[in-house]
Amino acid sequence: MAIISHLKQNKEPSMKLTSVMKPHEVQRDWVLIDAEGKTFGRILTEVATLLRGKHKPSFTPNVDCGDFVVIINAEKAVFSGAKMEDKEYFRHSGYFGSTKSTKLSDMLENNTEKLYKLAVRGMLPKTTLGRHMLKKLKVYAGSEHPHTAQLNKGN
Questions:
Q1: For the segment 83-103, what is each residue's pLDDT rounded down to a tens digit?
Q2: Rounded CA gap, 140 and 79, in Å?
Q3: Which of 70, 72, 66 lies closest to 133, judged by CA?
Q4: Which residues have a Cβ under 8 Å from the Cβ of 53 and sit 6 or more positions away?
Q5: Could you tell me the residue ranges of all domains in the chain?
Q6: In the CATH scheme, what architecture does the domain 21-154 have?
Q7: In 3D, which of 23, 10, 6, 21 has the Cα closest to residue 129?
Q8: How confident is the model over 124-152, as pLDDT tens digits?
Q9: Pick from 116, 45, 42: which is nearest to 75 by CA?
């Protein structure tokens, strides 16, 4: 009995526990990424990490703790190989024989924002949390964007 009571008295945790971030405690920054001259896939992996919040020491998997990301000069990203002619994006309405395809070069020219969001979406969780993370991505084909106030506030 004396041994059991001694063990109960010394029941202090000897390890430090990781703090868990709550949704109202998250502090979000605005990050500007210039895509001019950078490789498309390498930009997107960096963006996915920033949107998810994995670069922060307070990362919590079940909380959206990522930052807002603004990509400018999206049309000027570099693609390796012959992807501009060969790579195709498919969409399907659900009806028989309704598969339609679009080449990467057409997507980059006409739907730049959709192209970036499709690629980043594949790197984020496939849940409602992932959809909330994707809403924090802002893509602009040119160098002008309406988020200068948010970016200047962070600096």
A1: 999 999 999 999 999 999 999
A2: 18
A3: 66
A4: 26, 59, 60, 63, 64, 65, 66, 67
A5: 21-154
A6: Alpha-Beta Complex (3.90)
A7: 23
A8: 999 999 999 999 999 999 999 999 888 86
A9: 116
Cα atoms in the Cβ-side hemisphere of radius 13 Å centred on 149: 1
> 52: which 2 tokens?
């998810």
pLDDT in tens, 13-47: 567 777 788 999 999 999 999 999 999 999 999 99
What is the residue whose two structure tokens read 């993370």?
133
Q: Which residues of 2-34 are buried (b: 16+ CB within 10 A; e: fewer)?
A: eeeeeeeeeeeeeeeeeeebeeeebeeebbbbe
- What 3 state SS string does 22-53 have? CHHHCCCCEEEEECCCCEHHHHHHHHHHHHHC
Q: Tokens at residue 141, please?
A: 């084909």
Query: Tokens 């990203």 — which residue?
Result: 77
Half-sphere exposure of 52 (CA within 13 A, CB side): 19
- Which of 48, 49, 71, 61 lies closest to 121, judged by CA? 48
Whole-number Å distance between alpha carbons of 64 and 52: 7
Tokens, residue 37 = 């001259």
**Whole-model pTM?**
0.83
